[in-house]
Amino acid sequence: MNIILLEEHELGHSLARRDQRTIHLLKVLHKKQGDDFEAGVLGGMRGTGRIEKINFDGSILVTMNNFMPPPPRLRLRMAVSFVRQIQLRRILKSLSNIGVSEIDIAGAELGEKSYRDTKLMTDGGARAALIEGAVQARDTMIPALNVYENMDEWLNKRPWDSGRKHPLLAVMDNIRAEGSIFNLVPSNRPVVIAIGPERGWSDRERDIFEKAGFTRLSMGDRALRTDTACIAAATLAMEKIEEHAL
Q: Closest by alpha carbon to 51, among 72, 30, 28, 70?
C-alpha cells in the first residue's frame, strides 16, 4: 500500500487487528505508536496519518492530517465489454491506477454471455479493485463505475454528453479500422474509448458505433487481450489529451 485510505465513517474509530491496513502498518511498515504514515480520506484530501494508540486487542486508533488534494484525474472515459471476473478485476484496478475518470461496463454481442453474471459489481469486489488501484497511485479518488446491459443501451444513453466539451469518440477495432490511435492529433477535448471483447465487434455493433459518432481506430495488427487493450488505449490517449486533468 502506497497510501492508507480511510472512509469518512471510519474517522475517529479504531481499525481492527485483522484489517489489511492495520496489518500493513504494523507488520509490513513496522510502524509503532506515535509514527506517521501517508494517508488520505477516500473521496477527499490526502496528507499524513498518525498511529495514536495500539489497543490491547491489536486494533489501532489513527488520526488524520489531510492538506493536499488528490492527483488530477484524466479526462478519459473507458467503456469495456464484460470479460472473465478475474480479468475484469484487473481492468478496474489498472484503470483506477492510471486515473481514468469514468468506467462503463457493458455486454457485447460476441462476448461470452456468462461473463455478465459476475457478482463483482454487487459483492463489493469491483469497488475494492478500484480502491486498490487508487492506493497504489497515492490517490484518494476512484473512477465512477456504471454497468449497462449492452452497448446499445450505453450508446442510447450517451453518458458522455453531460460535459461542457464534446469529447473525441473512439472505438478500438483492428478489423475495420478507419485510422490509427497513434495518429490522433493532441486536443484539449475529453476522450471516450470503447473496448470490445477478444472476439471483436459484430458488424451491427460497428454500424451503431458509427451512427453514434465514433471513429474506429486500430492499435496495430495484433489481437490483444481486453485488459491489455484497455491499458494500451488509455496510455496512448493520455498522450493526446493536452489538458490532462479534470
A: 30
End-to-end CA distance of the chain: 25
Q: How far apart are CA 31 and CA 58, in angstroms?
A: 13
Three-state secondary structure string covering 130-168: HHHHHHHCCCCCCCEEEEECCHHHHHHHCHHHHCCCCCE
DSSP 219-244: --SS---HHHHHHHHHHHHHHHBSS-
Count Cα neighbours of 191 within 13 Å in the Cβ-side half-sphere: 30
CB neighbours of residue 115 within 10 Å: 18
- Contact (CB, 8 A) for 90 and 203: no
Count of positions (residues) in the chain: 246
Q: What is the pLDDT of residues 119-170, one digit of tens each?
A: 998 999 999 999 999 999 999 999 999 999 999 999 999 999 876 678 899 9
Q: What is the pLDDT of residue 162?
A: 76
Threshold 0.85, pTM exceeds? yes
Spatial CA neighbour of 110 closest among 197, 36, 204: 197
Rg of the Cα trace of the chain? 20
Q: Choose among 100, 197, 199, 81: nearest CA to 149.
A: 81
Reading the block at residue 132, the C-alpha cell is 486498490
pLDDT tens digits along 61-105: 999 999 999 999 899 999 999 999 999 999 999 999 999 999 999
Task: Return the beta strands (E) in the chain as ranges.
Answer: 4-6, 36-41, 46-54, 60-68, 74-81, 100-106, 144-148, 168-172, 179-180, 191-195, 215-218
